[in-house]
Amino acid sequence: MKRLLGRYGLRTAVLGYLALLVVVPVGAIAYRAFASGFVTAWRNLANPDGASTSGFVHALVLTLVVALIAVPLNAVFGVVAALVLARRRFPGAALLDAAIDLPVAVSPVVVGLALVLVYGRAGWFGGWLARQGIQVIFSIPGIVMASAFVSIPYVTRAVLPVLQEIGTEQEQAAATLGAGPWQIFWRVTLPSIRWGLAYGVTLTTARVLGEYGALSIVAGNVVGHTQTLTLYVGYLFDESDTAGADFGAFILAAITLAVLALLSISKAEKGSPPWRSRFGRSRSDLAVSSLSTTSP
Amino acid sequence: MRVIAGLETPDTGRVFIDGDDVTGLAPKDRGIGFCFQHYALFRHMTVWENVAFGLKVRHRPKDEIAKKVAELLDLVRLDGQAARYPSQLSGGQRQRMALARALIVEPRVLLLDEPFGALDALVSKELRAWLRRLHDEVHVTTVLVTHDQEEAMEVADNLAVINLGRLEQVGTPQQLYDEPVNDFVLTFVGPATSIRGEYFRPHNVSVSRVPAPGSHQASVIRVAHLGFEVRVELRLDPDGAGEDEKGLFAWAQLDRDTAQLLALNPGDRVHVVTDEGSPSAEAPARLDGATSEA
Do A180 and B28 touch (CB under 8 A)? Predict the structure, then answer.
């Protein structure tokens, strides 16, 4: 009886915590966004009295473009970094390992300021870049850089434990069977880490979509030009346009949730990874699933 | 083994396969098949895909791949398991699949790293006999590393005993058993017992109730009946040369009829004789802790 109570008590505590912090506020946003009806909400944005519609659509497009550039960049970098850390021994490996976590360790505001320091007009490279006609800060390159910067660790952290777990034997077996380095990567390594990679990409995407602090510094916050969705929502909130802010926030949350849902679906469908059969789960799968239990 | 496969670079020496110097070649260009100790199967591929891998990376035509995979799966008796994943196979099936995967590229040399190490004793014995028959069927030079002497004796035509990185002796199982070059080989490739500092095969030690020329007096400690074989544990009387207590213990292997005739009981006084011409050598100071490969 006591044990039963303990078990359900724990569950209640976990679910209650999640409800208070996540489910209720996000639900409230959704409710507020539709409180006056979806059509009204959309019309508010589509037929505004000011410039806010074009602002919203532009922000949405800009956010997606930034994600489409930053996420693949970090996916490739993350896999390469994980491979280097898992497979090679070299002086400075520990340093690289720590440096990869740096972007989430420091506040995004610091990231933004650091980028301005280096790439701003008065920055180390900024002046030279400006003379070449490239503007980084207060422009799309800066937004992409800041987004990529803050989301660097996720792919590496999701893939590295899987790589360490599977070891190098399968790759060596492939080599003895006649496969070259690229064939080994595409046919053996990548399929082995695909779930870790999918999870890392999902987290990266969520982070890129949601970044605010660093962008608020490097983007310049020009409506209809360098405003991403998060910045746009913040801007509407500051302008006391709570209806618009709620709707924008809802769209933002919906996109992120859709990305997370996509992962779960692909994992469940073509997924049911073969090794998660009724014959028991392998440890590499456990590594992935233990990570996914920490998903937001 | 890993040096032969090209997975590691030798500090000294060169690797020849069929007379070709392959020391500088990548594993994929050596024409080898390697079965890893823990099989290293591709977990995300089915049995069929695993076996087909070696041909797929060589971009062979689809129908050729299908034909050869079917052939190999039939050979290793996995034709019914083609659509399964490695995690759904038993240990013995995984081992056979690893063999099929290595054999499909028609290697010049097949390398087996402790192929039965991860299997339970019964499956291991069965697979051993099967592997030997398979070897006679497919005719591919096979190098097998094992720490199990019995396995080596049973499967191999030629044995090489390696002790602490040094090659001790190369020969047929019979040569190694009957004409060991040193004590290490003698004690390693078969049972051995020491009598007065010399090693003998226990079946070359006989026990008698009456003294004979060159016999040693001893007491029976224990008689163990192991079916046809009867094991007699003995303690030799000290000969006054200051042997240590441990060196006095020996054992003899008798057949059942002889043992029945002698009707030995613990505590009986007997005379121990060693056969002429049996392999023997000076007992080395220390044998335990030696790692060996055959």
Answer: yes
